[in-house]
Design brief:
The complex is a heterotrimer of chains A (about 675), B (about 210) and C (about 325). By secondary structure, chain A is mostly helical. Chain A has helices at about 15-25, 30-35, 40-70, 80-115, 125-145, 170-200, 210-245, 255-275, 275-285, 295-310, 325-340, 340-355, 365-385, 390-395, 400-430, 435-460, 475-505, 550, 595-610, 620-635; strands at about 5, 10-15, 535-540, 560-565, 570-575, 580-585, 650, 655-660. In chain A, the strands form three sheets. Chain A has a three-stranded antiparallel sheet, with no helix packed on it. A two-stranded antiparallel ribbon of chain A has the order 5-6. Chain A has a two-stranded antiparallel sheet with strand order 7-8. In chain A, helix 4 (about 80-115) packs parallel to helix 6 (about 170-200), helix 7 runs antiparallel to helix 8 (about 255-275) and helix 15 (about 400-430) runs antiparallel to helix 16. Chain A is globular, with a radius of gyration of 26 Å. The chains are: A mainly alpha (about 675), B mainly alpha (about 210), C alpha+beta (about 325). Strand 1 (about 5) of chain A pairs antiparallel with strand 3 (about 20-25) of chain B, so a sheet runs across the interface.
Chain lengths: ~675, ~210, ~325
């Protein structure tokens, strides 16, 4: 029987029968096949979030170890080599294994729900990106656990990273691990871009898209273009180390600054990539607790996009002390100062939303609103380092360390914690405890500021970065002690958060579909959502679909109860990029272990590449890995009938294969 | 062809999409898969952009003698380039065969493009052997071999893609309607071709224009 | 020395002095901005319903509220003023503080090594050139051109009270310059992570009066004095054939250049890259156990006997 090539999808409302049928179509298969083969974005999102929080905890423990060593002058809790590994692994963990993956996790979980869809555009690719992220994280930590962790800071300057100064495995674990992680980031970026552009529900035109989508979309578009730079940088380093090439060493015609350019061309857009999605979360969640739509929706989006675009043009501000020409310095300094402007748009939009709204203080609100102040503190310290001559004094001191922690903790961790309080009920069906949440917030807030506010002064007093200890007559003793105490308070605050999660997942107050009376589509489905998300695909008519009755919408109203059923298989809808007009029925793939197999093959090859330095047979492992990858890819990409990637080939009456007659 | 909004009345009506006759799955070259391949090509193009940036950055401040081959020979590289460009035309010819429902033409196109790709790779290998310098001699040599090596890796992936297209065409999977896989694969092969033109220009033509002399 | 030797709130030299006002401006603007935003935030939450949870949130009705976009316009507009001032001031300061000085009175070639500073006093006349380590003397008032060389990995040359930092990168020569307004000692520090002993790669810049500088320079040019007593002779022999594997003492057989020049070791206030004050106890302790004081540094432990140490000390005190 020929399946139709065109179809008018049924429009209707949700019935119990429809829900049951969709449930059986969309639910993850039981057993190991389900564990390794699920393509459910919600499961993958939670895996990302949990894994990223584990890395946050590990990075935090490393930070506490660092702070103990620095609590006083001339302490010797660790050797310089151990210290180098601790601070480098701390940086690598927080910036690469926590900061982006946590946002990817929230985005993975929320995007189809925010967009009114049933899954991401590429569900198998989604599963694959998680497996590679996990593999890369384990790969890099394997190095740390055997005493060969990264030891040259998270930005890993050459020549110190070259073999003659760094003969151990440290740099090889880091280089290959980063290339491996880059694969995950890149495919994740591709998935987010296509999902945002092609799988929004009908009516969700470009001016009705939640700001959280915009934040993640911009960040991932940037990642797509700049991750190859850092992957290349690390690959060339590995080549220098293992094959005697001369990319970075001056003796062979290479240049140490080539590393810095390739790294920071990636590195600067990266730091926007790890905050813009979080800012999007604030822009989506804060208005709910102010009981009004955000002020300046379009301006905030323009600010997001222009921050990211400008972010491509400022990377040299990490290199102001490297002896570049005055012309170059002036340009990048000017651009770095002006990039404050689009970032300021969000700050004022948030302040206006709070002041012109009717705020209610919940724990989520506390996190979303306090981050505004932390953002500004981090922003002004960045403003100070944007000026070249001032940066000549500030750079590589603890002033920069204060800056990066204000922007990273203030614009990533605080919004993430707020997002946890906000969306935990949607993900688990239970609310986090508000009383414990208050303790969590205040202790975290106080601890964080106690640790990092004095650090600005420590930097102004000249304390260099990356020192394993310091002399007692520099004037830094008390400040370092205060920072150490603050860091332990901060850690305790975060511990309270984890306790709150562990407690509430079992015994938290039950939440209905919309405990916060919020406007976006995810709050129209049960908590936690069924595997198919929406029994009927909604059509939206505004940016705040669930608030339209209150906002006195004069134009059309969104249709939530009635919509496309798309129940003839595992189906979702594709719409046009700007106006979200439906233009295709998407057939979605079943659970498949092909992504896991492909990830396994790639990881095996990377392990082989790591070991080739000590074992010639490692090349066999590389080959086996390549073969497994090929098998996985063939399984994955083989054209499937159910996905309409190929025509069915039928057998004629004689049993021989015949070409099916295709009607035009 | 579809309608989205119900007609607007005095009070706000409910917007409810009633699309009709939507294609089920990808249609021709329209489908999310094409967007996916587009992002893959964007990121790989960026990779080559950074490789070429590295060449221009190191070359711009290199000492005399950095260019180990101030006059690169076109003996192998030029015919090889022409061969690769031609293979794109042949691959396009093969894709056209799917469009015109001529399986023979498609098989010929993918098969010949595959063979041309293999020859390109073999000639490129000979080119590597013919160089008087080795990868560890200086940064120019390192860049030359790593850049053309990355390109070669992309060619090899492309060969697997062409082979898969050949096999799947032989199994009669594709039709003018169901051929997104073909369009995506041939699009990738064109990308590999275009990248080579940039690499070729950088390494074989700019020395004659005076760069890094 | 100052209680905060590496701070740069004030400057003792022309180059750093250009930067100080701009630094204060940006710092004050930053603090003011934070206070203003903090006040705005507190004002915004002043009317908030506290002690809220999900029920309290639902209880407050949703309203469209006023447009509010002017907040963004005004906020961004007001922010532009200090930004543009900072931009213009930055360019002016950059022009003033960038190098190289037009007529330097002195030219130094500083090569940064893991984990010490090699300082060559350049002269057109080779007989007037000499090398020292870790303590840089400059004449007060004069602009000193510093050519920075990277000996192994990237280091960064920084004397906060006199100048901003500039990296020493292998394969290129970066230019910095110093100038001191008055005599004094100014602490320097490597400011780019360069390995295990980055934390203790310090140095000192000493600004001498004109006469003192001339005297110092003349003294540095002289080779090491001859040993006289038997202990000194024995000491010199040890220095030549043990320390001389890495160090140089001009006028003896110790002629290696892998480690700091020791010809005038006792003229320096500190040893081990400003890690220790240069006194007999520290000196002997350093020679005997460098790995204990600076673990990972490139000077191996010497395992000398008490007699050998005594002889070495007898000789080294000659090297003024």
């Amino acid at each position: 029987m020929k399946e139709p090539d065109f179809r008018t999808p049924t429009v209707g409302s949700a019935t119990a029968e429809l829900q049951a049928r969709l449930h059986s179509i969309w639910e993850t298969e039981p057993g190991l096949k389900g564990v390794f083969g699920t393509t459910d974005h919600k499961t993958i999102g939670i895996r990302y979030i949990v894994t990223a929080f584990i890395f946050l905890a590990l990075g935090g423990l490393e930070a506490l170890a660092i702070r103990l060593q620095l609590a006083g002058p001339n302490l010797s809790l660790m050797t310089p080599d151990q210290y180098a590994q601790f601070f480098s692994t701390h940086g690598m963990t927080m910036i690469f294994l926590y900061a982006l993956p946590i946002l990817s996790g929230f985005s993975n979980y929320l995007w189809p729900l925010l967009l009114g869809g049933r899954d991401m555009a590429f569900p198998r690719l989604n599963a694959f990106s998680y497996w590679i992220y996990l593999a890369a994280g384990v790969f890099m930590y394997a190095g740390f656990l055997v005493g060969n962790g990264p030891n040259d800071g998270w930005f890993n300057y050459v020549p110190y990273a070259e073999r003659n100064y760094n003969p151990g495995f440290n740099q090889d674990f880091y280089s290959l691990g980063m290339v491996l992680l880059g694969i995950s980031t890149t495919v994740g970026a591709a998935n987010f871009i296509v999902t945002a552009m092609r799988t929004r529900c009908p009516g969700m035109s470009i001016n009705r898209v939640p700001i959280m989508i915009w934040g993640t979309l911009t960040a991932n578009a940037a990642n797509l273009l700049v991750v190859p730079s850092v992957s290349l940088a690390f690959f060339l380093l590995w080549m220098d180390r293992q094959f005697g090439t001369h990319f970075y060493d001056p003796v062979g015609g290479g240049q140490p600054l080539l590393w810095q350019h390739l790294f920071w061309i990636f590195g600067h857009p990266w730091v926007y990539a790890i905050v813009l999605p979080a800012m999007g979360m604030v822009s989506t969640g804060l208005p709910v607790f102010c009981r009004r739509p955000i002020v300046g929706y379009a301006l905030v989006i323009l600010g997001t996009i222009s921050t990211m675009v400008l972010g491509f043009g400022v990377w040299v501000h990490h290199m102001f002390a490297t002896g570049l020409s005055g012309l170059s310095l002036s340009f990048f300094s000017g651009a770095s100062i002006m990039i404050v402007v689009p970032s300021a748009i969000a700050v004022f939009a948030w302040l206006a939303t709070i002041t012109l709204g009717r705020p209610v203080v919940t724990t989520a609100f506390l996190y979303f609103s306090s981050m505004i102040l932390l953002f500004v503190i981090g922003g002004v310290s960045g403003f100070m380092t944007a000026s070249v001559p001032v940066d000549w004094q500030l750079t590589d001191t603890y002033f920069v360390v204060a800056h990066i922690h204000y922007v990273l903790i203030g614009i990533n961790v605080f919004p993430v914690l707020g997002a946890c309080y906000y969306w935990f009920p949607k993900m688990t069906g239970r609310l986090l405890d508000e009383r414990l949440g208050r303790w969590n917030f205040w202790i975290t807030f106080i601890g964080f500021n106690l640790a990092f506010l004095p650090m600005h002064l420590t930097g102004l007093l000249g304390m260099p970065r990356r020192v394993y200890t310091y002399q007692p007559d520099m004037g830094w003793n008390t400040l370092n002690l205060i920072t150490t105490i603050g860091s332990f308070v901060l850690a305790f605050g975060l511990l309270l958060f984890f306790i709150n999660v562990a407690k509430s997942v079992k015994t938290g107050a039950l939440a209905g579909p919309n405990p916060w009376d919020a406007p976006t589509l995810e709050w129209s489905v049960p908590s936690p959502p069924p595997p198919y998300n929406f029994a009927v695909i909604p059509t939206v008519a505004s940016a705040n679909p669930l608030w339209e009755d209150r906002l006195d919408e004069k134009r059309a109203l969104s249709s939530i109860e009635q919509g496309l059923l798309l129940d003839k298989g595992k189906e979702s809808i594709a719409t046009t990029a700007i106006d979200a007009v439906p233009d295709m029925i998407l057939e979605m793939p079943e659970d498949s272990v092909a992504p896991a197999i492909t990830a396994l093959g790639i990881t095996a090859s990377f392990v082989g590449m790591l070991l080739k330095a000590i074992w010639l047979g490692a090349w066999i492992l590389v080959g086996i890995g390549a073969l497994i990858t090929l098998i996985g890819l063939v399984m994955w990409l083989w054209p499937r009938r159910d996905l309409r990637e190929r025509e069915p080939v039928e057998r004629g009456p004689s049993g021989r294969r015949q070409v099916r007659e295709v009607t035009a | 062809m579809s309608e989205t909004l119900a007609t607007v009345a005095e009070e706000p009506a409910t917007a409810l999409a009633h699309p009709t006759d939507l294609p089920v799955g990808p249609l021709g070259r329209h489908g999310v898969g094409m967007w996916g391949v587009g992002t893959a090509i964007a990121t790989e193009a960026a990779l080559f952009a950074y490789l070429l940036f590295s060449y221009y950055y190191l070359g711009a401040s290199a000492h005399a003698g950095w260019l180990l081959e101030p006059h690169p020979t076109f003996k192998l590289s030029l015919p090889d380039t022409i061969l690769l460009v031609a293979s794109s035309v042949v691959a396009w010819f093969g894709e056209h065969g799917i469009l015109k429902r001529r399986r023979g033409q498609a098989l010929l196109g993918f098969g010949v493009a595959f063979v041309m790709g293999v020859v390109f790779a073999a000639v490129q290998y000979l080119e590597w052997q013919s160089k008087s310098y080795r990868i560890g001699d200086n940064s120019y040599a390192s860049l030359y071999f790593v850049t053309t090596g990355f390109h070669m890796a992309h060619v090899i992936v492309g060969l697997f893609v062409l082979l898969a297209l050949f096999v799947w065409t032989a199994l009669d999977y594709f039709s003018p309607r169901r051929r997104l896989t073909v369009s995506a694969g041939v699009f990738y092969w064109h990308f590999v071709d275009v990248v080579w033109l940039f690499v070729f220009t950088t390494y074989y033509i700019t020395p004659y224009l005076g760069f890094a002399r | 020395m100052s209680p905060t030797p590496l701070s740069y709130f004030t400057a003792d030299g022309e180059r750093a002095a250009h930067i100080v006002p701009l630094t204060w401006y940006m710092l004050i603007v930053s603090i003011v901005v934070c206070v203003v935003i903090g006040v705005m935030l507190l004002n915004g939450v002043r009317r908030a319903r506290t002690g809220g949870g999900d029920a309290q949130t639902r209880a407050i009705p949703v309203e469209r509220g006023t447009n509010g976009s002017h907040w963004i316009g005004i906020g961004v507009g007001v922010s532009l003023v200090p930004l543009i001032i900072a931009l213009v001031w930055t360019m002016i300061t950059l022009a003033a503080a960038a190098g190289p000085p037009p007529h330097p009175g002195l030219v130094l070639d500083v090569t940064a090594h893991q984990w010490w500073w090699e300082v060559q006093y350049y002269s057109d006349d080779p007989s007037q050139s000499f090398t020292t380590a870790n303590e840089i003397h400059i004449p007060v008032g004069e602009r000193v051109l510093v050519r920075l060389h990277g000996g192994d990995v990237i280091h960064s040359f920084w004397v906060p009270k006199l100048s901003g930092k500039t990296d020493a990168i292998p394969g290129q020569v970066n230019i910095s310059w110093l100038q001191a307004n008055h005599p004094g000692r100014f602490r320097g520090q490597c400011q780019e992570f360069c390995g295990l002993q980055h934390a203790y790669m310090g140095f000192e810049v000493v600004a001498d009066t004109k006469d003192d500088f001339v005297q110092w320079r003349a003294a540095q040019l002289r080779p090491a004095p001859e040993p006289i007593t038997p202990a000194q002779l024995r000491g010199q022999a040890i220095v030549e054939y043990r320390c001389g594997l890495c160090h140089e003492v001009r006028g003896t057989h110790a002629a290696a250049v892998a480690a700091p020049d020791l010809t005038h070791l006792m003229s320096r206030r500190t040893i081990a890259s400003a890690r220790l004050t240069n006194n007999p106890g520290n000196l002997l302790g350093w020679i005997q156990d460098p790995q204990g004081i600076k673990p990972g540094c490139l000077m191996p432990n010497q395992y000398l006997s008490a007699q050998q140490l005594h002889d070495i000390q007898a000789y080294l005190v000659l090297l003024r």
